[in-house]
Design brief:
Structural class: alpha+beta
Shape: globular
Helix content: 10-25%
Largest sheet: 10 strands, mixed
Radius of gyration: 21 Å
Number of strands: 19
Length: 360
């Protein structure tokens, strides 16, 4: 990857990194790698962060061939920087590309692009407890053609965003709205791909949730509208108390859910903390019944951006309000899992799974 770089004054960078929100500040550079059917992947370039020029006939603007990923780089205790499971993101990026009839970027090139950017922008990696450098790779179809077919030209772009908490209120339980009018994904669709169209299709339901004072939307299955699938763009977990056992239940992957990397990590961490895990269908009715009985003690969502987000209140047009726990504080299980994951990411505990990728 070639380097074409510039620098802003350190004082300007420091000013930009104060009171960080999520995804509002961007680093100085980005990596771009072109692709064409004839030549394959071209030479990558690290260049100043700038707008991308597209022809009005670019396929991405008409037929939606666009995928993306998201992972984080964390400041380590010795001052260095490490990424959390970028290889898993690279493999999911390939899966998304294949589903959208796009060329899969080699895993090693994905990781090389991220390493080059992060090393060059390491001063942009914040050190606050709830801060990280969020890395956003994307792939878009750039060929100018109006025929409905896979494009012949693409552009891979990767850039960074020093970020704070995904939710401005921090790690506090959120209110969620059950969408009965819309679905996120159907069997045979693109639910397991991280493609832009999935998120565009979610925005109307998200607006309905905001109208009902909820920050996220609960998606139900597309066939029966009974089983809970995801929360916004995050995976869901439910905590059950069964005698002396604590059992975590998460909807099983059926092809309609995004296979979350945080989800996978929690499924592997939970048994180490003494929790059982089950992947199975869970209906909205079961959620309500078991939460009211007290057998379900917590519910939370997980994802790269928000890590773990506890659910405080469930709102449903038919049944209205169900409060989880006290509705105001994170439950002990979700808090313990969150701490365990963050301790690995920030280098405070041993990385027994080999999840951290040291960059610099």
């Amino acid at each position: 990857i070639q380097l074409k770089t510039s620098r802003i004054p350190a004082v300007d960078r420091e000013a930009a990194m104060k009171d960080l929100e999520f995804g509002r500040v961007f680093t100085e550079h980005m990596v771009v790698i072109p692709y064409s059917v004839d030549r394959g992947w071209g030479n990558g370039v690290l260049k100043p962060y700038e707008p991308v020029t597209l022809d009005p006939a670019a396929s991405v603007l008409h037929y939606g061939q666009a995928i993306f990923e998201g992972f984080k780089a964390f400041r380590q205790p010795d001052g260095g920087v490490a990424c959390f499971r970028p290889d898993a993101n690279a493999r999911r990026f390939q899966t998304s590309a294949e589903r959208m009839a796009m060329p899969p970027l080699p895993v090693e090139l994905f990781i090389e692009a991220a390493d080059v950017l992060i090393r060059h922008e390491q001063d942009w990696v914040p050190s606050g407890e709830d801060e990280s450098l969020y890395v956003r790779p994307l792939l878009i179809a750039t060929e100018s053609a109006l025929g409905v077919r896979p494009a012949h030209e693409y552009l891979f772009i990767l850039f960074g965003s020093p970020s704070g908490n995904y939710f401005r209120e921090g790690v506090k339980p959120v209110s969620v709205w059950v969408s009965h009018d819309y679905v996120r994904a159907a069997v045979g669709g693109t639910g397991a791909a991280k493609c832009a169209g999935n998120y565009a299709a979610s925005l109307l339901a998200q607006a309905q949730g905001l109208e009902n004072q909820c920050s996220q939307v609960v998606w139900l299955d597309a066939v029966k509208r009974e089983n809970v699938e995801e929360l916004g763009g995050m995976n869901l977990f439910f905590v059950f108390r069964e005698g002396n056992r604590t059992v975590l239940v998460t909807p099983e992957l059926t092809g309609t859910l995004l296979p979350g990397i945080t989800r996978d990590s929690l499924l592997r961490l939970a048994p180490e903390l003494g929790f059982e895990v089950k992947e199975r269908p869970l209906s909205l009715d079961e959620w309500k019944t078991e939460a009211r009985s007290g057998r379900m003690t917590e519910a939370f969502a997980c994802g790269t951006a928000a890590v773990i987000t506890p659910i405080g209140t469930l709102k449903d047009g038919a049944d209205d309000v169900l409060v989880m726990g006290d509705g105001k504080t994170a439950g002990p299980v979700s808090q313990r899992l969150r701490n365990a994951l963050l301790d690995i990411q920030r280098g405070r505990t041993a990385d027994r799974h080999g999840w951290m990728h040291r960059v610099c």
